[in-house]
Amino acid sequence: MGEILFLAHRIPFPPDRGDKIRSHHLLRAIARLAPVHVGCLSEGIGDLAHEAELRVIAASHCIAPRPPSLALAGIGALARGRPVSLDAFDSPALHRWVTDTLATRPIDAIFVFSGQRGQYVPPGFAGRLVVDLCDVDSAKFAAYAAVARGPRAWIDAREARLLAAEETRLAARADATLFISRAEAALFAAQQPPGAEARISVVPNGIDTADFDPSSVEPHPALTGEGPQIVFTGQMDYPPNVEAALRVIERILPVVRRELPSATFHVVGRCPSPDLTPHDGRDGVRVWGEVPDVRPFLAGADLVLAPLTIARGVQNKVLEAMAMARPIVLTPGAATGIEALDGMHFVIAESDEQLARDATSLLRDGPRALALGAAARRFVAENQGWDAVLAPLAGHLGIGRSESARDAA
After folding, report:
1. Taking the model in full, what pTM does it have?
2. What is the distance between the alpha carbons of residues 2 and 34, in angstroms, rounded to a whole number?
3. Which residue of 156, 322, 346, 365 could cross-link 145, Cys pair, CB 3.0 to 4.6 Å?
């Protein structure tokens, strides 16, 4: 095995949001297999502060600035008939670095993290190509289009159509296409030509249960007062997270507070949407914005709610709450890709009424909530460790195949 080129749309440090958590652990696992060269984009000066961490793990690297204007990227994509998602992460500097790296280093494989990176793989590359689509991004935009109105619906439908074509193009070229969950892999396979499913595999998200350990984290002081404490975590300018938080604030929490008037709902995560911030301090709601560590908030939670309507892949927020032994009430979409059992490891509910009823029931029944949280932690400790879930990477990258063939002969 020679060397590996790893392409990601964001710098994989620090692992503090969903995509960066996955890319971070993938990169670390790949770096243990072979020398790795990392090409990624920065979204500001904060990203560049982590270049030293990248330098330690990578044989070489390029952190190119992401195009500064999403609006300009959108205009350009419309003019060229491309998905906006591709132009939003397109960088001439990164294209040049990829070309130079392939020309000067013995690159045997390229690992592409997320569909936006596929545009950097040159047509003439003859080595192995592994594409981690994570989830079916085109399906997310199709879901957006189904509920949007006016020009927004047309834009999202266009993005869904063009991204689907790009995903199919990448999968046809790749030696392996990876997804976070069986559901995402099956959805994608159903849209592909016959035979394509042989190259589609599942590599789920993992969780570091040593890091997310309730025995080593003190609850945040704001969650140690009177009344039940309910927590939702996530990137809070991401539309599905905003929608889920507003669903709790507007439709679920008022029902819970009719029976438990002192219940407080904490929205924890960076870049809270302008739709969320006015609710801070009103009717039992706290909107925290970015915090240095979500674990104290999880440690202090009596309940974690994850009522996502649009959810793709495996939700890190759910794995983190499970590892912290929290009782969780979540929607079927938020539970997708986690092979845990409803009623044993978490509680699945769909309607606002059922979510409110199950949340209230768990908040009233302390022993049941504790048992549910303990079972959740046992499940992720036994099934979702990063080393275990990423073990198949070597095979996907072709490492060990020739040795296996010689042994068989």
Report:
1. 0.82
2. 7
3. 156
C-alpha separations of 184 from 134, 194, 202, 333 in Å: 8, 17, 9, 11
**Structural domains in the chain plus CATH codes:** 3-203+390-408 (3.40.50.2000), 214-385 (3.40.50.2000)
Going from the C-alpha of 241 to that of each of 3, 227, 311, the distances in angstroms are 38, 25, 9
Q: Residue 150 CA to chain centroid, in angstroms? A: 29
Kindly report, residue by residue over 166-205, the tens digit of the pLDDT.
999 999 999 999 999 898 999 999 999 998 889 999 999 9
